[in-house]
Protein backbone atom coordinates (compact mmCIF):
# COMPACT_ATOMS: atom_id res chain seq x y z
CA UNK A 1 0.00 0.00 0.00
CA UNK A 2 1.43 3.40 -0.95
CA UNK A 3 -0.66 6.40 0.10
CA UNK A 4 2.19 8.88 -0.09
CA UNK A 5 1.00 12.38 -1.00
CA UNK A 6 -2.68 11.28 -1.27
CA UNK A 7 -5.57 13.53 -0.23
CA UNK A 8 -8.09 12.15 2.30
CA UNK A 9 -11.33 13.86 1.26
CA UNK A 10 -13.99 11.12 1.25
CA UNK A 11 -14.04 7.38 1.86
CA UNK A 12 -15.06 6.56 -1.71
CA UNK A 13 -11.63 7.63 -3.03
CA UNK A 14 -10.09 4.56 -1.37
CA UNK A 15 -10.13 0.79 -1.75
CA UNK A 16 -10.89 -1.58 1.11
CA UNK A 17 -7.24 -2.68 1.02
CA UNK A 18 -6.02 0.91 1.42
CA UNK A 19 -8.43 1.66 4.26
CA UNK A 20 -7.55 -1.60 6.04
CA UNK A 21 -3.89 -0.71 5.52
CA UNK A 22 -4.47 2.55 7.41
CA UNK A 23 -6.23 0.65 10.21
CA UNK A 24 -3.37 -1.87 10.43
CA UNK A 25 -0.85 0.98 10.60
CA UNK A 26 -2.92 2.57 13.39
CA UNK A 27 -2.73 -0.70 15.36
CA UNK A 28 1.08 -0.62 15.03
CA UNK A 29 1.39 3.06 15.98
CA UNK A 30 -0.98 2.62 18.93
CA UNK A 31 1.11 -0.30 20.22
CA UNK A 32 4.34 1.68 19.76
CA UNK A 33 2.95 4.60 21.74
CA UNK A 34 1.57 2.39 24.53
CA UNK A 35 4.91 0.61 24.92
CA UNK A 36 6.90 3.85 24.90
CA UNK A 37 8.80 2.86 21.76
CA UNK A 38 7.32 5.30 19.24
CA UNK A 39 9.63 6.06 16.32
CA UNK A 40 9.27 9.54 14.84
CA UNK A 41 8.52 9.46 11.12
CA UNK A 42 7.40 13.05 10.49
CA UNK A 43 10.37 15.04 11.80
CA UNK A 44 10.41 18.52 10.29
CA UNK A 45 6.95 18.16 8.69
CA UNK A 46 4.44 21.02 9.00
CA UNK A 47 0.67 20.68 8.97
CA UNK A 48 -1.85 23.54 8.61
CA UNK A 49 -5.12 23.13 10.53
CA UNK A 50 -8.19 25.05 9.36
CA UNK A 51 -11.27 24.78 11.60
CA UNK A 52 -14.26 26.78 10.37
CA UNK A 53 -16.37 24.74 12.82
CA UNK A 54 -15.53 23.94 16.42
CA UNK A 55 -13.75 20.74 17.46
CA UNK A 56 -12.25 19.02 20.48
CA UNK A 57 -11.25 15.53 19.29
CA UNK A 58 -10.31 16.12 15.66
CA UNK A 59 -8.18 19.18 16.25
CA UNK A 60 -6.33 17.75 19.25
CA UNK A 61 -5.87 14.40 17.49
CA UNK A 62 -4.16 16.08 14.53
CA UNK A 63 -2.03 18.24 16.84
CA UNK A 64 -0.96 15.38 19.12
CA UNK A 65 -0.31 13.01 16.25
CA UNK A 66 2.02 15.51 14.56
CA UNK A 67 3.82 16.23 17.84
CA UNK A 68 4.27 12.53 18.70
CA UNK A 69 5.75 11.95 15.26
CA UNK A 70 8.21 14.86 15.49
CA UNK A 71 6.24 17.22 13.25
CA UNK A 72 4.52 20.53 13.89
CA UNK A 73 1.06 21.96 13.33
CA UNK A 74 -0.23 25.54 12.94
CA UNK A 75 -3.85 26.50 13.56
CA UNK A 76 -5.31 28.93 11.05
CA UNK A 77 -8.26 30.47 12.86
CA UNK A 78 -10.86 31.75 10.37
CA UNK A 79 -12.03 34.47 12.80
CA UNK A 80 -8.58 36.08 13.02
CA UNK A 81 -7.24 35.33 9.52
CA UNK A 82 -8.17 36.33 5.98
CA UNK A 83 -9.56 32.96 4.92
CA UNK A 84 -13.07 33.09 3.57
CA UNK A 85 -13.75 36.80 4.10
CA UNK A 86 -10.85 38.55 2.33
CA UNK A 87 -9.12 35.69 0.58
CA UNK A 88 -10.59 32.86 -1.49
CA UNK A 89 -10.00 29.18 -0.78
CA UNK A 90 -8.05 28.90 -4.05
CA UNK A 91 -5.64 31.68 -3.03
CA UNK A 92 -5.34 30.40 0.54
CA UNK A 93 -4.53 26.92 -0.78
CA UNK A 94 -1.75 28.27 -3.00
CA UNK A 95 -0.20 30.20 -0.10
CA UNK A 96 -0.33 27.31 2.39
CA UNK A 97 1.03 24.97 -0.29
CA UNK A 98 4.35 26.89 -0.25
CA UNK A 99 4.91 26.41 3.49
CA UNK A 100 3.15 23.27 4.63
CA UNK A 101 3.44 19.54 3.93
CA UNK A 102 -0.28 18.96 4.51
CA UNK A 103 -3.53 20.86 5.15
CA UNK A 104 -6.44 19.76 7.35
CA UNK A 105 -9.84 21.40 6.83
CA UNK A 106 -13.12 21.27 8.82
CA UNK A 107 -16.13 23.27 7.65
CA UNK A 108 -19.62 23.08 6.21
CA UNK A 109 -19.35 22.87 2.45
CA UNK A 110 -17.68 19.76 1.03
CA UNK A 111 -16.80 21.80 -2.09
CA UNK A 112 -14.38 23.84 0.05
CA UNK A 113 -12.21 20.88 0.97
CA UNK A 114 -12.29 19.75 -2.68
CA UNK A 115 -11.12 23.23 -3.75
CA UNK A 116 -8.28 23.18 -1.23
CA UNK A 117 -7.16 19.87 -2.70
CA UNK A 118 -7.46 21.16 -6.26
CA UNK A 119 -5.38 24.28 -5.66
CA UNK A 120 -2.64 22.78 -3.50
CA UNK A 121 -0.14 20.06 -4.29
CA UNK A 122 0.16 18.77 -0.71
CA UNK A 123 -2.23 16.23 0.88
CA UNK A 124 -5.51 17.72 2.13
CA UNK A 125 -7.37 15.98 4.98
CA UNK A 126 -11.12 16.32 5.53
CA UNK A 127 -11.65 16.87 9.25
CA UNK A 128 -15.47 16.93 8.73
CA UNK A 129 -17.80 18.54 6.24
CA UNK A 130 -21.59 18.43 6.20
CA UNK A 131 -21.35 15.51 3.77
CA UNK A 132 -18.58 13.24 5.09
CA UNK A 133 -16.52 12.59 8.25
CA UNK A 134 -13.84 10.21 6.93
CA UNK A 135 -11.26 10.48 9.73
CA UNK A 136 -14.04 9.50 12.16
CA UNK A 137 -14.58 6.36 10.05
CA UNK A 138 -11.01 5.22 10.62
CA UNK A 139 -11.51 5.49 14.39
CA UNK A 140 -14.93 3.85 14.27
CA UNK A 141 -13.67 0.89 12.25
CA UNK A 142 -10.56 0.42 14.39
CA UNK A 143 -12.76 0.47 17.51
CA UNK A 144 -15.25 -2.00 16.04
CA UNK A 145 -12.45 -4.31 14.90
CA UNK A 146 -11.00 -4.21 18.44
CA UNK A 147 -14.37 -5.10 20.00
CA UNK A 148 -15.89 -7.38 17.34
CA UNK A 149 -17.04 -10.75 18.70
CA UNK A 150 -15.59 -12.62 15.71
CA UNK A 151 -13.29 -11.98 12.76
CA UNK A 152 -16.03 -11.94 10.11
CA UNK A 153 -17.57 -8.82 8.57
CA UNK A 154 -18.69 -6.12 10.98
CA UNK A 155 -22.43 -5.91 11.69
CA UNK A 156 -23.62 -2.48 12.82
CA UNK A 157 -26.56 -0.11 12.83
CA UNK A 158 -26.63 3.66 12.65
CA UNK A 159 -29.77 5.03 14.33
CA UNK A 160 -30.81 8.68 14.07
CA UNK A 161 -30.27 11.56 11.65
CA UNK A 162 -28.81 9.62 8.71
CA UNK A 163 -28.81 12.30 6.01
CA UNK A 164 -25.72 14.08 7.30
CA UNK A 165 -21.98 13.42 7.65
CA UNK A 166 -22.10 10.49 10.11
CA UNK A 167 -24.95 8.60 8.44
CA UNK A 168 -23.43 9.11 4.99
CA UNK A 169 -19.97 8.04 6.08
CA UNK A 170 -21.06 4.96 8.05
CA UNK A 171 -23.09 3.81 5.03
CA UNK A 172 -20.26 4.37 2.55
CA UNK A 173 -17.42 3.05 4.72
CA UNK A 174 -19.34 -0.15 5.48
CA UNK A 175 -20.16 -0.54 1.80
CA UNK A 176 -16.48 -0.36 0.89
CA UNK A 177 -15.36 -2.63 3.74
CA UNK A 178 -17.93 -5.39 3.15
CA UNK A 179 -19.93 -4.82 6.35
CA UNK A 180 -23.54 -5.58 7.26
CA UNK A 181 -24.83 -1.99 7.64
CA UNK A 182 -28.29 -0.93 8.82
CA UNK A 183 -29.46 2.66 8.50
CA UNK A 184 -32.36 2.97 10.93
CA UNK A 185 -34.24 6.24 10.60
CA UNK A 186 -37.38 7.85 9.13
CA UNK A 187 -37.01 7.71 5.33
CA UNK A 188 -36.85 11.51 5.08
CA UNK A 189 -33.59 11.36 7.07
CA UNK A 190 -31.85 8.67 4.99
CA UNK A 191 -28.69 9.50 2.98
CA UNK A 192 -29.63 11.10 -0.34
CA UNK A 193 -30.24 8.89 -3.37
CA UNK A 194 -26.88 9.68 -4.98
CA UNK A 195 -25.04 8.48 -1.86
CA UNK A 196 -27.25 5.38 -1.56
CA UNK A 197 -26.53 4.50 -5.21
CA UNK A 198 -22.78 5.03 -4.82
CA UNK A 199 -22.78 2.91 -1.66
CA UNK A 200 -24.76 0.12 -3.35
CA UNK A 201 -22.23 0.12 -6.21
CA UNK A 202 -19.38 -0.37 -3.74
CA UNK A 203 -21.39 -3.02 -1.87
CA UNK A 204 -21.77 -4.97 -5.11
CA UNK A 205 -17.95 -5.20 -5.24
CA UNK A 206 -17.29 -5.87 -1.56
CA UNK A 207 -20.20 -8.13 -0.64
CA UNK A 208 -21.51 -5.61 1.90
CA UNK A 209 -25.18 -5.86 2.85
CA UNK A 210 -26.84 -2.45 3.11
CA UNK A 211 -30.27 -2.16 4.71
CA UNK A 212 -32.16 1.11 5.05
CA UNK A 213 -35.23 0.78 7.23
CA UNK A 214 -37.64 2.77 9.36
CA UNK A 215 -38.20 -0.31 11.54
CA UNK A 216 -36.06 -0.39 14.68
CA UNK A 217 -36.61 -4.08 15.40
CA UNK A 218 -35.65 -5.12 11.85
CA UNK A 219 -32.70 -2.72 11.77
CA UNK A 220 -31.15 -3.85 15.01
CA UNK A 221 -31.63 -7.62 14.71
CA UNK A 222 -28.26 -9.34 15.03
CA UNK A 223 -26.01 -6.26 15.04
CA UNK A 224 -22.99 -6.04 17.35
CA UNK A 225 -22.68 -2.24 17.33
CA UNK A 226 -25.25 0.56 17.56
CA UNK A 227 -24.10 4.03 16.50
CA UNK A 228 -25.87 7.32 16.87
CA UNK A 229 -25.04 11.03 16.56
CA UNK A 230 -26.63 14.33 17.58
CA UNK A 231 -30.02 15.01 15.98
CA UNK A 232 -29.06 18.54 14.93
CA UNK A 233 -25.55 19.08 13.64
CA UNK A 234 -23.15 22.03 13.79
CA UNK A 235 -24.29 24.85 11.53
CA UNK A 236 -27.96 23.83 11.39
CA UNK A 237 -30.57 26.38 12.49
CA UNK A 238 -31.91 25.82 15.99
CA UNK A 239 -35.44 26.01 14.53
CA UNK A 240 -34.99 22.49 13.09
CA UNK A 241 -34.97 20.96 16.58
CA UNK A 242 -38.82 20.83 16.72
CA UNK A 243 -39.19 18.80 13.54
CA UNK A 244 -36.13 16.64 14.21
CA UNK A 245 -37.26 15.67 17.70
CA UNK A 246 -40.72 14.71 16.49
CA UNK A 247 -39.17 12.56 13.73
CA UNK A 248 -36.48 10.96 15.85
CA UNK A 249 -38.08 10.48 19.26
CA UNK A 250 -38.85 6.78 18.45
CA UNK A 251 -35.19 6.32 17.44
CA UNK A 252 -33.62 7.55 20.66
CA UNK A 253 -31.05 5.01 21.82
CA UNK A 254 -32.36 3.78 25.17
CA UNK A 255 -32.12 0.39 26.84
CA UNK A 256 -35.34 -0.83 25.14
CA UNK A 257 -33.88 -0.02 21.71
CA UNK A 258 -30.54 -1.64 22.60
CA UNK A 259 -32.41 -4.80 23.64
CA UNK A 260 -33.31 -5.41 19.97
CA UNK A 261 -29.60 -5.88 19.16
CA UNK A 262 -27.21 -8.71 19.94
CA UNK A 263 -25.63 -7.59 23.26
CA UNK A 264 -24.38 -4.70 21.15
CA UNK A 265 -21.78 -2.11 22.02
CA UNK A 266 -22.92 1.51 21.94
CA UNK A 267 -20.93 4.02 19.83
CA UNK A 268 -21.17 7.80 19.29
CA UNK A 269 -18.68 10.09 17.55
CA UNK A 270 -19.23 12.65 20.36
CA UNK A 271 -20.05 15.22 21.57
CA UNK A 272 -23.31 13.70 22.89
CA UNK A 273 -26.38 15.11 24.63
CA UNK A 274 -26.80 12.30 27.18
CA UNK A 275 -27.28 14.36 30.33
CA UNK A 276 -28.03 17.89 31.46
CA UNK A 277 -24.44 18.84 32.24
CA UNK A 278 -24.07 21.18 29.25
CA UNK A 279 -26.03 24.34 28.52
CA UNK A 280 -27.42 23.10 25.19
CA UNK A 281 -28.06 19.56 26.46
CA UNK A 282 -30.02 20.96 29.40
CA UNK A 283 -32.00 23.38 27.27
CA UNK A 284 -33.02 20.74 24.69
CA UNK A 285 -33.76 18.15 27.37
CA UNK A 286 -36.08 20.53 29.19
CA UNK A 287 -37.71 22.02 26.09
CA UNK A 288 -38.66 18.60 24.71
CA UNK A 289 -39.07 16.63 27.93
CA UNK A 290 -36.08 14.40 27.12
CA UNK A 291 -34.80 14.62 30.66
CA UNK A 292 -32.75 11.41 30.63
CA UNK A 293 -30.92 12.17 27.37
CA UNK A 294 -31.64 13.39 23.84
CA UNK A 295 -30.24 11.08 21.12
CA UNK A 296 -29.06 8.57 23.77
CA UNK A 297 -30.15 8.04 27.34
CA UNK A 298 -27.60 8.49 30.08
CA UNK A 299 -27.92 4.89 31.28
CA UNK A 300 -26.89 3.55 27.84
CA UNK A 301 -24.11 6.13 27.46
CA UNK A 302 -22.68 5.25 30.88
CA UNK A 303 -23.27 1.47 30.61
CA UNK A 304 -20.49 -1.14 30.29
CA UNK A 305 -21.61 -1.62 26.66
CA UNK A 306 -20.61 1.94 25.80
CA UNK A 307 -17.24 2.14 24.02
CA UNK A 308 -17.40 5.83 23.15
CA UNK A 309 -14.15 6.74 24.88
CA UNK A 310 -12.23 3.91 23.18
CA UNK A 311 -13.63 5.38 19.98
CA UNK A 312 -12.49 8.89 20.97
CA UNK A 313 -8.99 7.65 21.86
CA UNK A 314 -8.70 5.94 18.50
CA UNK A 315 -9.25 9.26 16.68
CA UNK A 316 -5.64 10.08 17.54
CA UNK A 317 -4.07 6.72 16.60
CA UNK A 318 -5.92 6.56 13.28
CA UNK A 319 -5.26 10.19 12.34
CA UNK A 320 -1.59 9.53 13.13
CA UNK A 321 -1.66 6.55 10.77
CA UNK A 322 -3.17 8.74 8.04
CA UNK A 323 -0.48 11.41 8.53
CA UNK A 324 2.36 8.87 8.53
CA UNK A 325 1.00 7.05 5.45
CA UNK A 326 0.59 10.24 3.42
CA UNK A 327 3.44 12.47 4.66
CA UNK A 328 6.37 10.18 5.55
CA UNK A 329 9.19 10.47 3.03
N1 LIG B 1 -16.16 13.43 16.77
C1 LIG B 1 -15.62 14.60 16.46
O1 LIG B 1 -15.35 14.93 15.31
O2 LIG B 1 -15.38 15.40 17.54
P1 LIG B 1 -14.93 16.93 17.51
O3 LIG B 1 -16.09 17.71 16.95
O4 LIG B 1 -14.66 17.26 18.95
O5 LIG B 1 -13.71 17.07 16.66
N1 LIG C 1 -23.02 15.35 12.83
C1 LIG C 1 -22.18 16.04 13.79
C2 LIG C 1 -20.87 15.34 13.95
C3 LIG C 1 -19.96 15.97 14.97
C4 LIG C 1 -18.64 15.26 15.10
C5 LIG C 1 -21.98 17.47 13.31
O1 LIG C 1 -21.72 17.67 12.12
O2 LIG C 1 -22.11 18.39 14.13
TrEMBL record:
Residues 154-325 form the Aspartate/ornithine carbamoyltransferase Asp/Orn-binding domain. Residues 6-146 form the Aspartate/ornithine carbamoyltransferase carbamoyl-P binding domain. Gene3D superfamilies: Aspartate/ornithine carbamoyltransferase (3.40.50.1370). It is an enzyme of class 2 (transferase). Its EC number is 2.1.3.3. NCBIfam families: orni_carb_tr. This is ornithine carbamoyltransferase.
Amino acid sequence: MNLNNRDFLQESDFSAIELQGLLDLAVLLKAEKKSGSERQRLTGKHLALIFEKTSTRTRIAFELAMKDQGGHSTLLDPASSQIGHKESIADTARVLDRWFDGIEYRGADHATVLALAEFSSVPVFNGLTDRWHPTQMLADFLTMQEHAPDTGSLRYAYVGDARYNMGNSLLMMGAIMGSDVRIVAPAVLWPDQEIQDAAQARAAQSGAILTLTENVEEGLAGVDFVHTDVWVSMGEAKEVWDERVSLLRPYRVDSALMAHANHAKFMHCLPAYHDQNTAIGRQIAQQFGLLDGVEVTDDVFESPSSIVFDQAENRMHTIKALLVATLEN
